Amino acid sequence: MGVKLKNFIVFVFIVFVFIFSSCSKSVVESSLLDDEGDLVLVDFYPGARPLAVLQTGRYPLWFQLTDDGPVHIAVIEDAVYTSALVPWPYALHIQFLHEGQNELVMTVNRGGFLKIAPNTGDVPGLALYRFSGGDFWKQYTVGGFVYFEGNPAALLYLDNRFMNTGAPLPNPRAWTFNMESNVPFPLEIPALEFFPTADFWEVDTLRLGNDGLYYYRVARRTGSSPAIRMFRTDGLTKAGEEISSGVFYDSFTFDDIFTHSALPPLPEGFVYTATGEIEGNLFAAWEEQSDFNIGAAGFVILQADF
User: Quick one: which of 81, 118, 232, 291 has the fewest CB in 10 Å?
Assistant: First the structure.
C-alpha cells in the first residue's frame, strides 16, 4: 500500500472517530432565522467542538466549501465542474484570512467563520472549527474582517449589484465568535453605530489599512438622500474622520496572486487567494474563478519546509 493511500486512510479514520464521539453528545440543530425571517436566539454547545482533527503529511489535504461546511476531497480535480459560477458576492469562498498566534481565523462568505488551531484533546493534530452563520449569513456578503477589542469581527452587507435578493439590510451587521460555542453572535462596533440601518445606512467595507488605521465606507442607496462616505479612525470605539475616496483606496494593498514553492498545482481556472502558516504547515485558500464569478472554493493544508 502506497504512502499516500496510508496517509489518507489514517486521516479518514481519525476524523471519523472524532466526529462519531462528538455526535454522541446531545445537540440542538437550529437556525439563526425563524420561519418569518426574524433573527432569533439559538441553542448551542457549551464549548466549541472541532469539525475534524487534521493530521498532515507530505501529501496535501484538500477541502471544498459547501453549505454544510468544509468537505474533504481526495484530490483538487474532484472539485472541477462541481459548482456553478456565480458573481463573487454570492459565492461561498474564503473572503478574509488572519494568521494569529498559533491559529488561523477566516471568514467564509455567506457561511460564517473557520478556525484552525492545535487540538487540545486526546487526538494529536490541528483542530478545524466551524462557526456557522446559518440562514442569516446566507443572505449577505462579508465586507470586512478586523479585530475589535481582541475579538474577531466580520462585517456583513447587502450586495445587490448583480441581482436584487430582496433581503433587508443586515441587522446586526457585525459578528464575532468565541470558543464557548460553535455559533457566532452579534458584536456592536461603536464607530459603525453612527450610521444605523434604520436610517438606511449600510457599511460595506471595514479594514485595517497599511498605516495601522481602520478604514470604513458607508452608503445610503435608498431614500431621499443617497450618499457614499468614507472614514478612518485609530480606534473603532469612536466616530471616524471623513476622508476622500483617494485617501481611502490608497490605504490598502491587494495581492491578486498567492504562490509558494510547496503548493501543489491547480487545474486551469483555479487560483490560490490567500496563504498562511501554522505548526509547520502551509495553508492556502483556493477558488475557481472566471471574470467576476466564483465556482468551487475551499482550502488545502500540508506540511512544508519554510
Answer: 291
Q: Contact, 106 vs 113, CB < 8 A? A: yes
Instruction: Report yes or no on 1 lying in a domain.
Output: no
Torsional class of 49: left (φ above 0), alpha (ψ -120 to 50), beta (otherwise): beta
Q: Is the pLDDT of residue 43 over 50?
A: no
Q: What is the pLDDT confidence band of residue 259, given thresholds at 50, 70 and 90? A: confident
Q: Are 232 and 244 in contact (CB under 8 A)?
A: no
Let me know if residue 233 belongs to a domain.
Answer: yes
Q: Output the nine-digit C-alpha cell for 189.
A: 462596533
Residue 72 in grid coordinates: 474533504
Considering its fold, how many domains does the chain have in total? 1
Q: Concatenate the DSSP letters of all residues of 216-245 into one string.
A: EEEEE-SSSS-EEEEEEES-TTSPPEEE-H
> Is residue 28 assigned to a domain?
no
The answer to whether the Cα torsion of 259, 264, 265, 270 is positive or negative is negative
* Structural domain boundaries enclosing 123: 11-22+41-303
Kindly tell me if the per-residue pLDDT of 72 is higher than 60. Answer: yes
* Statement: residue 209 has pLDDT above 60: yes
Instruction: Quote the pLDDT of residue 262.
Output: 86
Q: Which residue has the cell 438606511?
A: 200
* C-alpha cell, 44: 448551542
Is 29 contained in some domain? Answer: no
**Residues 223, 249: Cα–Cα separation, whole Å:** 26
What confidence category does residue 269 fall into, taking pLDDT thresholds of 50, 70 and 90?
very high
